Amino acid sequence: xxxxxxxxxxxxxxxxxxxxxxxxxxxxxxxxxxxxxxxxxxxxxxxxxxxxxxxxxxxxxxxxxxxxxxxxxxxxxxxxxxxxxxxxxxxxxxxxxxxxxxxxxxxxxxxxxxxxxxxxxxxxxxxxxxxxxxxxxxxxxxxxxxxxxxxxxxxxxxxxxxxxxxxxxxxxxxxxxxxxxxxxxxxxxxxxxxxxxxxxxxxxxxxxxxxxxxxxxxxxxxxxxxxxxxxxxxxxxxxxxxxxxxxxxxxxxxxxxxxxxxxxxxxxxxxxxxxxxxxxxxxxxxxxxxxxxxxxxxxxxxxxxxxxxxxxxxxxxxxxxxxxx
Length: 325
Prior knowledge:
It comes from Vallitalea maricola. The protein has 325 residues and is α/β, with parallel strands linked by helices.
């Protein structure tokens, strides 16, 4: 009888151990499956020139949301317009073995070698705004022509509101070659379309802080400036704030730029100094959506055209309701 009881207990213990192992195995399998799901999306490293620029920061955050929604991971960094720092950031992305690098280059020549290293490591490279040799896709704007659009719109205001004669300030950013091209386009279009206007000041400003401080300085030397043409929305937002702070906001002063950031569109809607901005591709969400579509194709190994040109839309007081609700 004791032998029978011992056999029963032994069998019960064995069954319990088997069940426990089965549960543990299922738990481990479940954890592995969860880990695989979490790692099923792409890993992205992104470095941009300056996150104080609203269109760049909003695009980065929106892209991060899209990547993470598909189970991936993304890190985006501000290099502070410093090429050496940007190279270091790319090197870290390579060390972390990301699937794709998105770069808004500060200095094209400076980053070519490190991006070549990235591609040799099997990492895809997406270049925002610069036609890099070591990139799988270059997402481009004809920056000289974009500058001409800004200059033409500013000239139209000069001719319509000031009978072709007024003082003009240009906020450019020649430190970056593509923005140098854009600034040249602005100046050439102003000279061609409003030849009697006078450019009395030309200085660099890429974010709202620089735009405001530079505009304040311009007003000290040239209090009669009535038109400000800017290479981007950051400087334009700052210029608008400086104009309001100086008590110079009238129906004759105008700021013209590109990017069509939310702050610019709000100012246009409210009839402030911002009168026109060129929307490039769309807002941050639209930009992120387009970039993510290309990244999916790159990571999947699909064949893509290297050069992709962006679309532009001119936003003014006449059509602001289409772009800002």
